[in-house]
Design a protein that fits this description.
Structural class: alpha+beta
CATH class: Alpha Beta
Radius of gyration: 21 Å
Helix content: 55-70%
CATH topology: TATA-Binding Protein
Number of strands: 5
Shape: extended
Distance between the termini: 62 Å
Largest sheet: 5 strands, antiparallel
Length: 159
């Protein structure tokens, strides 16, 4: 009798792990990446976003015009710009320590503004706060601040 109870216990634990893993796998993309519709057309969204970022002390070292890049390679896609955002103070907090540099592949922060086939403009960004919390320590602190700033920038075109 105890053997059957033990088997049920083990089967329940295994089933719980499998189900939890499945639901986490299905939910992760929606938790990691965010998307919102802009209140403005593409050009206005880009302009307002850039100005807000600069007003908040962020630098935009690179803007990737994906529509032009794809056009050069023979493809037609709707308007899309990917912004690389850097706040030197935040970046320094991570880059000054060898132990934190592992997250440098997620730097600088990125935000995309693009049009979809419905004619509307959207903005997407990574949930850097969640990513930082998974890392802990200085990375969590810095990415939490950077995430809050990004959210403010994005709100300038979605609210």
């Amino acid at each position: 009798m105890k053997r059957i109870q033990y088997l049920y216990l083990v089967a329940g634990i295994v089933a719980g792990i499998v189900l939890t893993s499945f639901f986490a796998y299905k939910a992760a993309p929606g938790m990691m990446m965010k998307e919102a519709e802009s209140l403005y057309n593409f050009e206005e969204s880009v302009s307002k976003f850039e100005q807000t970022a600069k007003d908040m002390g962020w630098k935009i070292p690179t803007v990737h015009d994906m529509q032009k890049t794809m056009e050069v390679n023979g493809y037609q896609v709707a308007s899309m710009k990917v912004f690389e955002l850097c706040h030197p103070d935040h970046a320094y907090e991570i880059l000054k320590k060898d132990s934190e540099r592992i997250v440098s592949n997620m730097m600088p922060c990125r935000v995309s503004i693009y049009e979809k086939s419905d004619g509307k403009t959207y903005v997407s960004w990574m949930n850097t706060s969640m990513m930082g919390n998974m890392m802990g320590g200085v990375v969590a602190e810095v990415m939490g601040v950077a995430s809050a700033d990004s959210e403010k920038m994005i709100k300038s075109i979605i609210e």
